[in-house]
Amino acid sequence: MAKKTLKTAKQKSAFWNNFVLIIICVIWLVPILGILITSFRPSEEIFRSGWWQVFPHKENVEVERIVLPESVDLDGEFEILGKTATFEEFRNTVELDDGRLITWYGNKRTRTAIISENRWVGFATNLTLKNYSDVLGGKTISYKNAEGQTITRTGNNLGGAFLNSLAVTIPGTIIPILIAAFAAFGFAWLEFPGRNIVFTIIVALLVVPLQIALVPVLKDYVNMGLNGTFLGIWLAHAGFGLPLATYLLFNYIGTIPRELLESSYIDGASNFTIFTKLILPLSVPALASFAIFQFLWLWNDYLVALVFLGEKNQTVTIAVARLVGEKGQDWHLMTSAAFISMILPLLVFLGLQRYFVRGMMAGSVKG
């Protein structure tokens, strides 16, 4: 009886745990789905309705457009399909006797009224890639607003910013991983004077905010001509990421059985051979775990990129921030830019997530 009660309690606990996790996943996925769908919708529809309108639903569908002749005076009351009302009343929608709706299109100059009726609408088929081409291309773009007016703007070259982010993020992730892997191997398995003191200093650097180092590093970069260059930001990100990388990899490499290294030494392998042929392959979970952290941090970084690169070689974060300031009301551009900026980090995390927990748990329990 006690075993049955315990089993029932475990099942209830598992059910509620799974239920909470599903709710969290849904809450996380809904805005992402909304951004994705909105980024493919025509601009005119984005201003008129929500992104969920792409799914089957019931809505007022346009069945006819009526253009009033110039002889009709729009300043007073006028008639459309037997209904007499003012311009403001038609603009706020007037219902016909058969249930259809009359809605004025745009301003008075259009002299156009839309006749619509309530119908079931299937999945939207008018999705477009124009929003992405407008954001990535950087050319002059045009689109229609909610009132049907054509708006022309100068585009943002998010494609170039995307390539700049790749040029910053990939080397900025690889360089500290390689250096930290060598350092962690040395701290974990090699004996040399001052090893503990140096490792303590490296760990202590974890609590130092990078913001206090920006001005001194920037002054040195200006003197050496590195400011505004990719080499300068690679070195900066490598320096800021090395303490955490060294600490994580040290914890993992320190758990590798000593017998493996001793047998390799007996077989005549050098330290470099052991590191490249044994340590690195065994440390893939920890390397991938830090790669996720470093890649996401560099990809989403705004401050360091703005300080050391500036807007000349702007990254995705700088380009999106400028887009918000210049075109914050243009939702079709904002959503496509947001999804472009988030798609690569999502792919990196999903591709390496199987190593993530193993890498984080590495070295947490010994003995």
Structure description:
The chain has helices at residues 2-39, 43-48, 87-91, 130-137, 158-189, 195-204, 211-224, 230-253, 258-266, 271-282, 284-300, 303-308, 316-327, 331-361; strands at 57-67, 78-80, 83-85, 94-95, 101-104, 112-121, 140-144, 150-154. The strands form three sheets. It has a four-stranded antiparallel beta sheet. Strands 2-3 form a two-stranded antiparallel sheet. With 367 residues, it is an alpha+beta fold. The chain is 61% helix and 12% strand. It has three domains: 1-39; 56-122; 158-361, MetI-like (MetI-like fold), CATH 1.10.3720.10. The chain contains 14 helices and eight strands.
Helix and strand layout, with pairings?
Blueprint: H1 2-39, H2 43-48, E1 57-67, E2 78-80, E3 83-85, H3 87-91, E4 94-95, E5 101-104, E6 112-121, H4 130-137, E7 140-144, E8 150-154, H5 158-189, H6 195-204, H7 211-224, H8 230-253, H9 258-266, H10 271-282, H11 284-300, H12 303-308, H13 316-327, H14 331-361
Antiparallel strand pairs: 1-6, 2-3, 4-5, 5-6, 7-8
- CATH architecture assignment of the largest domain: Orthogonal Bundle
Structural class: alpha+beta
H/E element order: HHEEEHEEEHEEHHHHHHHHHH
| Top-tier CATH class of the largest domain | Mainly Alpha
Question: What's the total count of β strands?
Answer: 8
| Corresponding CATH superfamily of the largest domain | MetI-like
The chain-level mean pLDDT equals 83
Taking all Cα atoms into account, the compactness measure Rg is 30 Å
Molecular shape: elongated
The percentage of residues in β strands lies in 5-15%
The rounded distance between the terminal residues' Cα atoms is 38 Å
Instruction: Determine the fraction of residues in helical runs and give it as a percent range.
Output: 55-70%
CATH topology type of the largest domain: MetI-like fold
Domain unit count: 3
Outline the biggest β-sheet: 4 strands, antiparallel
Spatially, the strands of the biggest sheet line up as 1-6-5-4
Assembly state here?
Answer: single chain
- Low-pLDDT runs of 5+ residues are 363-367
